[in-house]
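Hi all, long-time lurker, first post. I run a small reading group and we've been trying to get comfortable going from sequence to structure in the token notation. Rather than ask abstract questions, I figured I'd post a concrete chain and ask someone more experienced to write out its structure so we can walk through it together at our next meeting. Sequence below, copied exactly:
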Amino acid sequence: MPDQDQLQRFAFENTLIRGEYVHLDSTFQDALSRHDYPPIVANVLGQAMAATVLLGATVKFEGSLILQLQGKGPMTLLVVQLFANGSLRGLANWDSDPLPDTDQLSALFGKGHLAITIEANLSNANQTTPGRPKDERYQGIVDFGQGNIAQALEGYFQQSEQLNTRLWLSVTEQHAAGLLVRTIPSNQSQSQIDNNENWNRIVIFSDTISKDEMIGLSFRELMRRLYHEEDVRVFEPEIIRFRCTCSRTRIEDLLRRLGIDEVRSILQDTQKVEVDCEYCKQHYSFDAIDAEKLFVKEIISDAPKTRH
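-- Answer (accepted) --
Happy to help. Here is the structure in token form:
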């Protein structure tokens, strides 16, 4: 029985190799239930959601990690956001139907790029920088190339981190799963030959995993299936869940930033200000009275003062 909606970290003892495994069930289904996605769009979204959780396991951050794919092909945008508390949300936009039946990013998005953004208080999992500002925003961008999401991310790690990283993803109509193995920087006196031998051996074992096994096996079964000859240390699982951060308060703040004149202009045309969250489809409605309440302080401060 697969471990539902969990991230599982593990380490290979006496090596510089770490691993992460994620299995998404209701988290993935909740994201799909709010949109009528074509099968290939749902598949790529599932890959991106699993990949984002795995990426989040490689860094420490307070805030959110965002994986974004953008282009001018049949698909135009895919965004997945992971929060430090394990909350995950995602959405995808497409313009044409039928879509190509492939997960190759260049076929789906045309010419475009993949961006990884980490917002607020970033610190590398293996290194921290004294004096780093708490609200730091980091972004890395890589072209799609000729592969899928896993291959694009492997290229990103090789380009930006210069660390060995391999990634395997699998998606069905109901589930999304992923496996990542990576080397970590270290000052340990371990020869490069040993490091390469360890890495090559782990990749050979990992490469035997099938998409069905990644979805259908439990984490313990997966570890026995792939790494029964290795000394593997397993850490406590972390729960992942679909949760959107939208709220009426956030929408009110958005309307205040638009300004009273712009909001009144919308009300003149439609009698209501209607806002739908793209991630979860939650609907927010503001009539004239609701809108005026948002600007009470501004209206009072602008009123003419009468001296008696």
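A couple of things your group might point at:
Residues 122-133 have pLDDT under 50 and may be disordered.
The chain has two domains: 6-242, 248-302.
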